[in-house]
Specification:
Layout lengths: L3 E6 L4 E7 L8 H16 L5 E6 L13 H5 L7 H14 L5 E5 L2 E3 L1 H7 L3 E4 L4 E3 L13 H9 L1 H9 L4 E2 H7 L4 E2 L5 H14 L17 H18 L5 H15 L1 H16 L2 H15 L18 E5 L3 H12 L3 E5 L3 H20 L5 H8 L2 E4 L10 E4 L5 H14 L5 E4 L6 H4 L9 E6 L8 E5 L6 H13 L3 E5 L7 H17 L4 H11 L5 H8 L1 H14 L9 H7 L12 E3 L5 E3 L4 H11 L12 H21 L6 H12 L8 H5 L3 E4 L19 E3 L1
The structure holds 3-hydroxybutanoyl-coenzyme A (3HC).
3-hydroxybutanoyl-coenzyme A (3HC) binds next to strand 5 and helix 4.
């Protein structure tokens, strides 16, 4: 709901119709009805020769109003939405007697670009973003985009833009034929008006995109392109159906014409919009934007303080990754190490991280040198008085961290934020020997820190709201999604996912093949299965972190002998290229038949196979046995208020663990229920069918 559409008719006979619906001029149903009303009025008025459609405040439109989807997905009627494609885009705009020109500034995405494509020409400002990103929401373009974009830019480019949900800039749009002219923002309306008048008077051709065929490939070629795209989708996104629905609509249009394609698109859109995948992906869209609107903090209206200089203590894998993330966003960073050897190694890692961007063509040599010059290596705290924030990233040793924080308190100014990158240790312990509890905060990055998009911000009871607001702002500035979490073993992400590997170890001890487990979980949508993940993390780290969970949650852990036996056999994971898999020089994983004996040993020691025989189970059982305990732990994290809102856990799981976003939203759904029992130990799973073993019972 909301938004408005205005119309002003000039002395030149051009009606300028303006969409007004901040912040992105989304096409809410009221806006679409408003557009219809103004177009009908313009058609009737004798003083109107031609029409220009534009958006207020330098933005054309961010597309259909996404806030309307949840209601439709819960069974609400989609009302006028289903008619927009033919009633508004074709009959009212494209086939009207008076021509329309779109004046596009800022962005024309989704329905916004579709609206512009039903006009007879498009004039854009240089920095406009143009795209059909609907697929990232689990839906497909629904206002004729699957038909008009291929007709304007050709099939290959149109399919790429839709499947990748990737917008293009005006210049590329002009080269492709999507944009007719690029002009400065101040000339936008003047030029668009002139184009509209020129089309009305016949000086310029009146082109209807839906009927064009000049950019379309021949039928044979088109079929090949679509066949290739389908195969790609099936290979890279086997659990998703909406990209295939999108290709079906495109194909129908190529074979039977734009109008028939439009009807097919409407049918496919209606099916996609109510799918579980769309529910999950729409939830993720809003979850991502909700993370900084923290109840209890947002209302305080605090402004983030300026953070210019940051220090990182420890230049290991995590520390150097954090330094890289900071310098990439223009921060000056001091990297402190304990001796020159470690310091040079840390600086070398930062350099290598940046060099890899140069190699991939993502950074120029000049930018590389400028970025690297932002890091200064030191061995003492002498220059720490100038820093606004310190992030400690040394090994997980409580005594060491405590002594570092004592030093930091002595050497930093008294409003400097003191952050720790610990992934498991209680923050109260880390800061136990300091008096600066209000500015002590967790900044938990995920490895590799310069690539992974999540930043868990951990607060204690004493962390000040200002420190939280400051770290949130820094997180956004370095292009991370910051999620605020409470203090507990593993915080939100590692805590929720500790049963992921433990349940997998238990299944192995029950006789299920480890590669089958990994394949089942990967096919379900995780980026890798639990055994491959353990190899990646490294067995040393895995065992140390596992021990923390055993200590913290003894009632619901499964302690397998598998990891210790692998360590005894000098199998450390990817680190020495021997773990549950073996790895070649390019780190390509291959199953390792030689570990059969180690697995058997662990199975014998655990003695949990029913009657000593391997447990038979389907792939679905495997997924449930592993993911249900994860969901249970998520419920506990919510119940203990470790996260303030359920959507934070959804987005943290997606960005921190690669949980498939199209399956996301379940945790938010579950949080609507009252958890009445949480005390069923994971180990009992073997005695029940997987479904019975969900140890969260909830009532609606
Ligand atoms: C039938 C049609 O084919 C179907 C459609 O059109 S579906 C919609 C297709 N459009 C999209 O997918 C675009 C989605 N939006 C975006 O990618 C980005 O928001 C953007 C590029 C427009 C702006 O990005 P950015 O400047 O970083 O701001 P961002 O924080 O993302 O968004 C600003 C606000 O606009 C809202 N917003 C953005 N697009 C919206 C949309 N299409 N509908 C409703 N709200 C929208 C956001 O939720 C956010 O609200 P908040 O301030 O309350 O959190």
């Amino acid at each position: 709901m909301g938004g408005s559409v205005n119309m002003e008719v000039g002395a030149d006979g051009v009606a300028v119709i303006t969409i007004q619906n901040p912040p992105v001029n989304s096409l809410a149903i009221d806006v679409l009805l408003g557009l219809k009303e103004k177009y009908v009025e313009a058609a009737k008025r004798d003083d109107v020769k031609a029409i220009v459609v534009t958006g207020a405040n330098g933005k054309f439109s961010g597309g259909f109003d996404i806030t309307a989807f949840p209601k439709i997905q819960q069974g609400g009627s989609n009302g006028y939405l289903s008619k927009v494609s033919t009633d508004l885009m074709i009959e009212t705009i494209e086939e009207a007697s008076k021509p329309s020109v779109a004046a596009v500034a800022g962005l024309a995405l989704g329905g916004g670009l579709e609206l512009s494509m039903s006009c007879h020409a498009r004039i854009a400002t240089p920095k406009a973003q143009l795209g059909l990103p609907e697929l990232q929401l689990g839906i497909i373009p629904g206002f004729g985009g699957t038909q008009r974009l291929p007709r304007l830019v050709g099939l290959t480019k149109a399919i790429e833009m839709m499947l990748l949900s990737k917008p293009i800039a005006s210049e590329e749009g002009k080269q492709l034929g999507l944009i007719d002219e690029i002009v400065s923002p101040k000339d936008l309306l003047v030029t668009a008006r002139q184009w509209a008048l020129d089309i009305a008077s016949g000086k310029k051709p009146r082109l209807s995109s839906l009927h064009r065929t000049d950019k379309l490939e021949s039928l044979g070629e088109a079929r090949e392109i679509i066949k290739f795209a389908r195969a790609q989708v099936k290979r890279t996104a086997p659990n998703l159906t909406h990209p295939l629905l999108c290709l079906d609509a495109v194909e129908e249009g190529v074979i039977a014409g734009g109008y028939a394609g439009n009807l097919k698109e409407a049918e496919a859109f209606a099916a996609a919009v109510v799918s579980d995948n769309a529910k999950g992906l729409v939830n993720v869209f809003f979850a991502q934007r909700a993370t900084t609107k923290v109840p209890g903090i947002a209302e305080l209206g605090l402004k983030p303080r300026k953070i210019q200089n940051v220090a990182v203590v420890g230049g290991g894998l995590m520390g150097s990754g954090i330094v890289t993330a900071l310098v990439l966003s223009g921060y000056s960073v001091i990297l402190k190490e304990i001796n020159d050897k470690f310091l040079q190694a840390g600086l070398g890692r930062v350099k290598a991280n940046l060099q890899s961007r140069v190699k991939k063509g993502k950074m120029s040599q000049e930018k590389f040198e400028k970025t690297l010059s932002l890091v200064k290596g030191v061995l003492t705290y002498d220059v720490f008085k100038s820093v606004d924030m310190v992030i400690e990233a040394v090994i997980e040793n409580i005594d060491l961290k405590q002594s570092i924080f004592v030093d930091l308190e002595k050497n930093c100014k008294n409003d400097c934020i003191l952050a720790t990158n610990t992934s498991t240790i209680d923050l109260n312990l880390v800061g136990a020997k300091t008096r600066s509890q209000d500015r002590l905060i967790g900044a938990h990055f995920f490895s590799p820190a310069h690539i992974m998009p999540l930043l868990e911000i951990v607060r204690t009871d004493k962390t000040s709201p200002q420190a939280i607001v400051d770290l949130m702002a820094l997180g956004k500035a370095i292009k991370k999604t910051p999620v605020l979490v409470g203090n507990c073993t593993g915080f939100a992400v590692n805590r929720v996912f500790f049963p992921y590997t433990m349940a997998a170890m238990m299944l192995s001890d029950l006789g299920v093949d480890i590669y089958r487990i990994d394949n089942a979980i990967k096919s379900w949508g995780m980026p890798m299965g639990p055994f491959r993940l353990t190899d990646l993390v490294g067995f040393g780290v895995g065992a140390a972190v596992g021990a923390q969970f055993v200590k913290a949650f003894p009632d619901r852990v499964y302690v397998s002998k598998l990891l210790p036996r692998m360590l005894e056999a000098q199998r450390l994971g990817e680190q020495n290229r021997k773990g549950f898999y073996v790895y070649d020089e390019k780190r390509k994983a291959r199953p390792a038949p030689e570990i059969k004996e180690i697995i058997k040993e662990s199975q014998a020691e655990s003695g949990i196979m029913p009657n000593g025989k391997p447990l038979a189970m389907t792939d679905k059982d495997i997924v449930e046995m592993i993911m249900f305990p994860v969901v249970n732990e998520a419920c506990r994290v919510l119940a203990e208020k470790i996260v303030v809102q359920a959507s934070d856990l959804d987005i943290a799981s997606v960005l921190g663990m690669g949980f498939p976003p199209y399956r996301c939203g379940r945790i938010s759904d579950i949080s609507q229920f009252e958890i009445i029992s949480l005390d069923f130990p994971l180990f009992c799973c073997q005695m029940f069918s997987p479904l019975q073993c969900v140890h969260v019972f909830y009532t609606s």
